[in-house]
Target: Coleoptile phototropism protein 1
Amino acid sequence: MRSKMMGCREEHQSTHGSVLGGKPNHCVIYPPKSSIVAGELERRNNDWFVRTKVASDLMVQVGDFSFHLHKLAMVSKSGYLNRLVFAKRSEGHGHNGGSLKIVLDDLPGGTITFESIVNFCYGFKVDVTAASIAPLYCAANFLEMSDDLHQGNLISKTEAFLSFAIFSSWKDTFKVLKSCESVSPWSKDLLIVKQCSDAIAWKASTDPKAFTLGQNSNGNLNVGESSDTWWFQDVSTLRIDHFIQVIESIKRKGVKPELVGSCIAHWTAKWFSGTTFVFDDPTIPKHLTQKLQRITIESLINMLPAEKNSVSCNFLLYLVKLGLKIQVNSELLSKLETRIASMLEQCCAQDLLVKNYGDKDTTYDVGIVIRVVKAYVLLALKNSRARLCIVGRLIDGYLTLIARDINLTLIDFKLLVDALPTNARSCDNNLYRAIDMYLKAHPSLMEEERASVCKAMEYHRLSEDARQHAMRNGRLPLKIVTEFMLLEQVKMARSISASKSNINPRTTTQVIMKMNNKKCLEKGFIAPQKEIMLIRKEVENMKMQLNQLQMCKLKLQKQVQRSCIK
Model:
């Protein structure tokens, strides 16, 4: 490597730590001798001058600064400046001892980089680091400072140190890549971004012990990082276009899909605070910021690993939330919802909890879960192996987690309850628990509203304990309580009939009367509180009668067994 440096002397410092700390690799470039003997470069306000006995005959303007230079020193090493000077002289400029003026509006790196180029052209040493080498290399290519013009020219010297910085140090690789942000698209066209991405991918896919890991501000090694995820923190500092290229390189290296998915989630958490893009900048027009956000989210969705279980359901739901807010491509969003729907049978209720951030919003975003459940139902209609009952239990569990939210509207609660078909629930215990919690948290609901909430709950899908609790629950609407009591009486009557014992005619008549009372309720009449108390008492009496019959049955069975033994 040193033989390739050709006058570039490295002063290598150890490079421990993350991107944000430590001393970078340092290189001093010693250029060939200049054809002009000059002193140092000095600045006067917005003008730069080279201290020499020869008058300046070339002015180069870069941004707001003017460099008063000499054609011989500059054009001997820059093919681009050589052509511009020749063109200007052909047009009649610079004759009679006048100074030529050249404007470099698009020079990569701007004024700071051009100052280093001037120093190189006049034979002064140039100090470069990992943070400054990429702009200098891009500017050297822009100005066509190749060895064809002058042996040991700036392109070859910067290229040598650039390769060294990229592949020798994990930290310096990121320094180089971060510096490429200011010199796009030159850094991309010159493959600097690709080289950095490949270097990061290679290092991330190998033994992390071979590379120095993160340090805190005191220089002590961070010990809380997993051996598999040690590279996440530094990769998450990259902007989206460079992050995409790094992820593509990492995928090609065969890194596990689960790690790739986790890294994407880590980057998203870093750049999005809630649903606000950290890149928000008041100096950038709003429509451009929104466009950048949309492109970012769409890029994140497109780069997700396709492998099953490579990305968590919770993160995918978060992407849906961001996508809806930023209005990403609807087809892309639909594919994402379908992917989440296919994962529901392996999820737990906590996986569906995605936080809202508005003061008047629900604690968790219910709307995105409703969308995904509807997508699941569409999938289940096409797939005979779909396990609806598993998703039914999942949604009922989720309902119990969100039911106490005072901002949860009746409409959203009902939409989620009714999103699944009736055959998705074999037991309504969790649904009843969620409904009871919701009614307790929303005491101002009208009778009809409470009845509409309870509509999906069915008597025969509740356990015995849940039924008894429901019949004593003052939060449930009277219509539901009365219906459950009537059904309990019918159940008791059938049990008594099944025991083949004599049934009190009065009891049978009362059951029929209660069933008629149910029909009245369906027509809109509400039973008075006194009637409900009487029904409860009758149910208890029937239970006692049933217990007595069962005791008699056991005694008879024992007597029959004794007779058989004799």
Notes: The first helix runs from residue 2 to 5. The chain has a mean pLDDT of 83. The longest strand covers residues 58-62.
